[in-house]
Write a structure and sequence with these properties.
The protein has 88 residues and is of the alpha+beta class. It has one domain: Nucleotidyltransferase, domain 5 (2-Layer Sandwich). The chain has helices spanning 44-62, 74-83, and strands spanning 9-15, 20-26, 31-33, 39-41. A two-stranded antiparallel ribbon has the order 1-2. Strands 3-4 form a two-stranded antiparallel ribbon. A hairpin with a 4-residue loop joins β1 and β2 (20-26). The longest helix has 19 residues, at 44-62. It comes from Nocardioides aquaticus. One of its GO terms (molecular function) is transferase activity. Keywords: Transferase. Belongs to the LytR/CpsA/Psr (LCP) family.
Length: 88
């Protein structure tokens, strides 16, 4: 699963002290420099180097290196939303 192309890429910023959150979508077909692999679509970074390379590629694109990268499949995402008391 970690060596596939990402479908929906989101960069999420959280400020725990205030509870504030911001998210921006990264278009998966954005043509960018992928470190060590030339230029390709941003979602190819996951294929080339897993979550670490995807985080580095997105960080280079937006100028903020992510602290964490989370990869999920839709059924697991639904479970996560339910687990934190989301939509029922």
């Amino acid at each position: 699963m970690l060596r596939t192309r990402g479908d929906a890429l989101q960069l999420v910023g959280l400020r725990p002290s205030t509870g504030a959150a911001t998210a921006i979508g990264i278009p998966r077909d954005s043509y960018v420099a992928v470190p060590g692999h030339g230029s390709d679509r941003v979602n190819a970074a996951l294929t080339y180097g897993g979550p670490r390379l995807l985080g580095e590629t997105v960080g280079d694109l937006v100028g903020i290196e992510p602290d964490y990268v989370m990869v999920t499949r839709f059924p697991f995402f639904e479970d996560m939303v339910d687990d934190i008391g989301g939509s029922r």
